[in-house]
Design a protein that fits this description.
Largest sheet: 6 strands, parallel
Number of strands: 6
CATH topology of the largest domain: Rossmann fold
Low-confidence stretches: none
Helix content: 40-55%
Number of domains: 2
CATH architecture of the largest domain: 3-Layer(aba) Sandwich
Structural class: alpha/beta
CATH superfamily of the largest domain: Response regulator
Distance between the termini: 47 Å
Order of helices and strands: EHEHEHEHEHEHHHHH
Mean pLDDT: 87
Radius of gyration: 17 Å
Strand order of the largest sheet: 2-1-3-4-5-6
């Protein structure tokens, strides 16, 4: 079975070493390189392709938000997992909007960080609980962008019900229990929403829904 190939991007060499140690606990994970900033990360990607990039946000030369946007534009199959100390909306939301599939804080346990790599690689999303709460709050408070809703393909009634529960912070299992369906059915509905809206994961569904004004629980 092919290993999950990981690039670690952080301007602190001690942090890079610690993250490499954390993810190396997984037999299926291989750290193939390190970079000090976004520019170095992009230069690395020019000649080698990781499956997952673990990306800090605040770095010199090119920060994580700029690097994430550039990477997703050029190599859309690469998954970005933000791993940072910053948990304010001024960094979390731009990072997720740029295309990150997950956002974990550096005070997360080694097990959580390793699981985050696995989750984003599998096509899921990975958010620290504090970050998930912040994203849901943003979804509830965001003013819709003009024309954003009209540009998106219409959801079915059941897909809309799944979206509403997703924006309440429910897991797939909780959504399934709420709608009295199987977890596989929930995953299928989420997959169809992603296909309709041309997004990659649960995080991007919420970001897109916020911009379009499709969820409002105030």
């Amino acid at each position: 079975m092919p290993k999950i190939r990981v690039l670690i991007v952080d301007d602190d060499p001690l942090v890079r070493s610690a993250l490499a140690h954390f993810v190396a606990r997984g037999d299926e994970v291989e750290v193939i390189g390190e970079a000090e900033n976004g520019l170095e990360a992009i230069a690395f990607l020019e000649h080698d392709r990781p499956d997952v990039v673990m990306m800090d946000v605040q770095m010199p030369e090119m920060n994580g938000i700029e690097a994430t946007a550039a990477i997703i534009q050029r190599w859309p199959d690469i998954r970005i997992l933000a791993v940072t100390t910053l948990d304010g909306s001024e960094t979390v939301l731009p990072m997720l909007s740029a295309g990150a599939s997950g956002y974990l804080l550096k005070d997360s346990s080694a097990e959580s960080i390793l699981e985050g790599v696995r989750e984003v690689h599998s096509g899921a999303s990975s958010l620290s609980p504090r970050i998930a709460s912040l994203l849901v709050k943003h979804v509830r408070e965001t003013e819709p962008e003009a024309g954003a809703a009209e540009a998106l393909e219409t959801l079915t009634e059941r897909e809309s019900e799944v979206l509403e529960r997703l924006a309440q912070g429910m897991s797939n299992a909780e959504i399934a229990q709420s709608l009295i369906v199987s977890e596989g059915t929930v995953k299928a509905h989420l997959g169809r929403i992603m296909a309709k809206w041309h997004v990659r994961d649960r995080v991007q569904i919420l970001v897109t829904a916020a911009h379009a004004g499709f969820v409002d629980f105030r």
